[in-house]
Design goal:
The complex is a heterodimer of chains A (558) and B (142).
Chain A (H helix, E strand, L loop, with lengths): L10 H18 L6 E2 L5 E2 L12 H5 L15 H4 L3 E2 L2 E2 L4 H13 L5 E4 L2 H5 L22 H7 L10 E4 L3 H17 L9 E3 L3 H7 L8 H18 L3 E2 L2 E3 H7 L3 H21 L4 H5 L3 E6 L3 H23 L11 E5 L11 H15 L4 E3 L12 H17 L13 H23 L3 H6 L2 H18 L28 H14 L2 H17 L4 H10 L3 H12 L8
Parallel strand pairs in A: 3-12, 4-5, 5-6, 6-7, 7-8, 9-10, 10-11, 11-12
Antiparallel strand pairs in A: 1-2
Helix pairs in contact in A: 4-6, 6-7, 7-9, 7-21, 7-22, 8-9, 8-10, 10-11, 11-13, 11-16, 13-14, 13-16, 14-15, 20-21, 20-22
Chain B lengths: L3 E7 L6 H12 L3 E8 L1 H10 L4 E6 L4 H14 L6 E6 L6 H7 L3 E3 L5 H20 L8
Parallel strand pairs in B: 1-2, 1-3, 3-4, 4-5
Helix pairs in contact in B: 1-5, 2-3
Classes of the chains: A alpha/beta (558), B alpha/beta (142).
Chain lengths: 558, 142
């Protein structure tokens, strides 16, 4: 190949450099130990030009141009900084509203609301399944009234709001409440911008719940939301493929990307089957990745993900709108890579994770708090994480030049490797009949669990060093003050009682009946969910309809 | 006789990576392991008795341990399972640990505990319990 990263005139120079590298390997290679990235990509101690010389135009290109390896937008952070989108949510809507406003006042530029366990799974706070978890892991939302109060004082037509509601059993109902609440407050739904997580893999693979929906039905519900948003909410991202969570459950970086891309393919195909062309759907899709500890592999992962995504969307769907092949993503730094032991070490870890995300060109970032492995972030921990983003943004100079690691022999080689490994998994999933089938048969569960067990064994047996856990673990225990979630259940119980006695219960019954009709006859459930939310139906009531017809799937674990 | 273990997630806690990896590890050490998924306290106790387990493992990462763990142990006692050993894994703040032990939890395994350590502790606990049982002569008042 004559035109390489170093340019056409450099071929003779490359050969000379390659010769030098070869001589180094002959001299020193035998005295170095072989190493691998976290995903198992072999990494020799020295890379040379021949490892990274591809075709600049087809492999890299400039930012904002295919194949988008170097970034989805032409000017990236030199045009606009990434969104500082810290995750928040705990206790009641009042508790979380206070935290959201604090973060906005202190420099957050976007909102990222996480819902508690019962809300994500579609149970009312006072349900017997929910009572022990009300307000934990996120904010408790049971009805439109809660949603109105959650964003009190927030200009919903100006701030982008991410709703971390992942399970399709409840994602549509929560979006319906958000839309109905925004309307009640006088905002035009068409002007709302934000993201709903809405990933069927969260319901069926990544997490567990008492009554899991069948994959096909969970996927159908998530597609109801996607279809509705595509037709009615031009500024909304209806789904964010949760690579982050695939990874937290055990996937490695390669599988994380492969499952995100496979999920996007499944989505566009499902929307085509509903009569929607690729462009209005694909240009609103978004993804959510982790940033783990293997710095260069993580940077390579984001770059490879953009290139694979562009390639796959182009090959399969031949879109007209170039936005349809751009992979835009939010990054949350890894929770599972943080340790309960010596928790202050996590400040350093999370900063390095965040560095990987911005070297990789993330659109939006949450840095995890140092007490992540211990509790819901305290105010101090949350602010430290926010400040870490601000340090990255304003002190390190990472925003000066776009895709700053481009041309690194190592990073380009890893980018190529991640891409080719992702392609192999995608072919494998195609062979199984697509992602929904691969979930249904348990293939995805098995892959993720195998990798989770391997990672645990690697740490337990010392092959993967973790400071404070299997290295330098004998330090006297350090503790940080842990955050206590304010009491939630009694307050939510009162709110629910008030709602149930004030609403028109016949109207609720009728709305739920119409929802059930949609479930049975296959029409889109979103309009019925919005009507139910407006009538004052609770989240649990809506989700019970889904569980009644399609719950009780046994996750194929072995 | 292999040691029999049941593992479950209380309430709506949904992070099951730890529960599954420890289940697989204990099985690889020759134990008979059943993963019960999400359970309410009464259901968990009933299933533990039905499965005739030596050890019931509770995996809680959501922070619901204060509300669920004592209730599970109370249910075990009420249903006649006082002989079943209860171990707890997950995110349990130091401040809550005494309460968990008071409620009857035998061991707590926090994040980062090597799986083999958990297997050894469980083996030890069951041996101790069986030795204590055997030291009581048959027919003597308990």
């Amino acid at each position: 190949m004559t035109s390489g990263i170093v340019g056409a005139s450099g071929q003779a120079v490359i050969e000379e450099m390659a010769g030098q590298v070869q001589r180094w390997r002959e001299e020193h290679g035998s005295s170095t130990m072989p190493t691998w990235t976290e995903s198992g990509i072999p990494v020799p101690p020295l890379y040379g030009p021949e490892d990274a010389v591809g075709d600049y135009g087809t492999q890299l290109g400039v930012p904002g141009s295919p194949p988008y390896t170097r970034g989805v937008y032409p000017t990236m952070y030199s045009g606009r900084a990434w969104s500082i989108r810290p995750l928040a949510g705990f206790g009641t809507v009042e508790d979380t509203n206070r935290r959201l406003r604090l973060l906005l006042d202190e420099g957050a530029t976007a909102i990222n609301t996480v819902f508690d366990y019962p809300t994500n799974r579609g149970y009312d706070s006072d349900d017997e399944w929910a009572r022990a978890d009300a307000g934990l892991g996120g904010v408790a939302v049971d009805s439109i009234d809660d949603m109105v109060d959650l964003y009190d004082g927030v200009p919903l037509d100006e701030v982008s709001v991410s709703l971390v509601l992942s399970h399709p059993v409840a994602a549509g109902a929560i979006l319906a409440m958000y839309l109905a609440a925004a309307k009640r407050r006088g905002f035009d739904p068409a002007r709302l911008s934000g993201t709903l997580q809405n990933d069927f893999m969260m319901e069926t693979v990544v997490l567990t719940a008492p009554s899991v929906l069948e994959p096909e039905f969970a996927f159908r519900l998530s597609m109801d939301v996607t279809e509705y948003c595509t037709r009615h909410l031009p500024r909304w991202h209806p789904v964010s493929f949760t690579g982050y969570n695939y990874r937290e459950a055990g996937a490695d970086a390669v599988l994380e990307v492969a499952l995100v891309v496979a999920n996007a393919v499944a989505t566009v195909e499902a929307m085509r089957a509903r009569g929607l062309p690729v462009d209005p759907v694909a240009r609103r899709l978004s993804a959510f990745f982790t940033a783990g500890s293997d710095l260069f592999e993580e940077v390579a992962k984001y770059r490879a993900a953009r290139r694979v995504y562009h390639g796959v969307m182009t090959e399969r769907f031949d879109p007209m709108d170039e936005r349809s092949t751009r992979l835009r993503f939010h990054v949350q730094t890894s929770g599972s890579a943080l340790t309960a032991a010596q928790p202050l070490n996590n400040v350093a870890r999370a900063a390095l994770h965040g560095l990987a995300a911005v070297l990789g060109g993330a659109q939006s970032l949450h840095i995890s708090a140092y007490d992540e492995a211990l509790c819901i972030p305290s105010e101090t921990a949350a602010l430290t994480a926010l400040r870490t983003q601000q340090i990255l943004l304003s002190e390190t100079g990472v925003t000066r030049s776009i895709d700053p690691l481009a041309g690194s022999y190592l990073v380009e080689h890893l980018t190529d490797e991640v891409e080719s490994r992702v392609r192999k998994i995608l072919a494998n999933i195609d062979g199984m009949g697509g992602l929904v089938r691969a979930v249904d048969t348990g293939w995805v569960h098995a892959r993720i669990l195998d990798l989770a067990c391997q990672a645990t064994a690697d740490i337990d047996e010392g092959r993967r060093p973790v400071v404070g856990v299997n290295v330098s673990a004998n330090q006297a225990p350090t503790t940080v003050e842990t955050f206590d979630v304010p009491e939630t259940l009694p307050k939510q119980g009162e709110r629910l009682m008030r709602l149930r006695s004030n609403r028109d219960n016949d109207a609720v019954t009728n709305a739920l009946h119409r929802l059930e009709q949609c479930v049975v006859d296959g029409t889109n459930t979103m309009p019925a969910l919005i009507a139910a939310a407006e009538a004052g139906a609770t989240l649990g009531q809506c989700c019970d309809v889904f569980r009644h017809h399609h719950g009780g799937w046994r996750q194929p674990l072995r | 006789m292999p040691i029999r273990v049941a593992i479950f997630k209380p309430g709506l806690d949904s992070h099951y990576r730890g529960a599954l990896t420890i289940s697989r590890h204990l099985a690889s050490r020759g134990m008979e392991v059943v993963y019960l998924g999400n359970q309410l306290p009464a259901g968990a106790a009933r299933a533990a008795l039905q499965e005739d387990v030596d050890v019931l493992g509770i995996s809680s990462l959501s922070g619901n341990h204060l509300a669920t763990v004592p209730a599970v142990i109370a249910e075990l006692r009420a249903q006649g399972g006082q002989n079943i050993l209860v171990v707890l894994g997950g995110i349990i703040p130091d401040i809550d640990r005494p309460l968990m032990f008071e409620a009857g939890v035998q061991r707590i395994f926090g994040p980062g505990t090597p799986l083999e350590h958990i297997a050894q502790e469980i083996t030890l606990l069951v041996r101790e319990r069986d030795a204590a049982d055997a030291s009581v002569p048959i027919g003597s008042p308990l």
